[in-house]
């Protein structure tokens, strides 16, 4: 089935899902899941390669890929003394700290959903609109930054503003690595 026809089918099913009662909505959701399975099988049979996969959901394997990508980009930040210097700068310039957080979130969203490395689909978003993959990538990379910098003695929480700043400085590349580590393998 051509991709355009599948996209049209998904659009029609999603419109129907929004327009019907609760019982019918469950049947439409089941039809959507079946259509997604068909689409995955067609994509598999077409052997579209590593950069042409359709990615849905976010499970334990994705968390592991996210963590590995975060570490790959984050270890250099953990051993580099400049990370603490940036943290000290952020401690006295909170606008730059917030700007870096905003830029990090924008870049992660862009890598996952805009750059089109892979066809990343949002499935079962949190609160009906927040993609689980986005939340997972952000949470894993931020947690990795905090734990790694703390465990390796690179930050001292006696000065929380500097420690937070250093974590945000490390979070930026770690989040990019986490996003790439998650979607590039595909699946």
UniProtKB/TrEMBL annotation:
Ranges in a coiled coil: 6-48
Segments passing through the bilayer: 95-114, 134-155, 161-184
Keyword Transmembrane: yes
UniProt entry keywords in alphabetical sequence: Coiled coil, Membrane, Transmembrane, Transmembrane helix
UniProt cross-references to InterPro entries, sorted A to Z: DUF2391
Protein name per its UniProtKB record: DUF2391 domain-containing protein
């Amino acid at each position: 089935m051509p991709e355009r026809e599948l996209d049209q089918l998904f659009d029609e099913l999603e419109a129907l899902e929004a327009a019907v009662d609760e019982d019918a909505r469950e049947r439409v959701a089941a039809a959507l899941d079946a259509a997604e399975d068909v689409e995955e099988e067609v994509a598999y049979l077409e052997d579209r390669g590593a950069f042409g996969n359709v990615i849905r959901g976010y499970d334990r394997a994705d968390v592991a890929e996210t963590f590995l990508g975060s570490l790959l980009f984050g270890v250099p930040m953990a051993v580099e003394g400049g990370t603490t210097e940036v943290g000290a700068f952020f401690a006295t310039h909170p606008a730059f700290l917030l700007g870096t957080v905003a830029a990090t979130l924008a870049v992660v969203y862009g890598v996952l959903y805009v750059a089109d490395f892979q066809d990343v689909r949002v499935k079962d978003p949190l609160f009906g609109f927040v993609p689980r993959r986005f939340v997972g990538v952000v949470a894993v990379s931020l947690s990795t930054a905090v734990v790694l910098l703390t465990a390796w003695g690179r930050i001292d929480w006696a000065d929380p503003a500097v420690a937070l700043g250093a974590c945000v400085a490390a979070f930026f590349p770690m989040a990019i690595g986490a996003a790439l580590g998650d979607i590039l393998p595909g699946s």
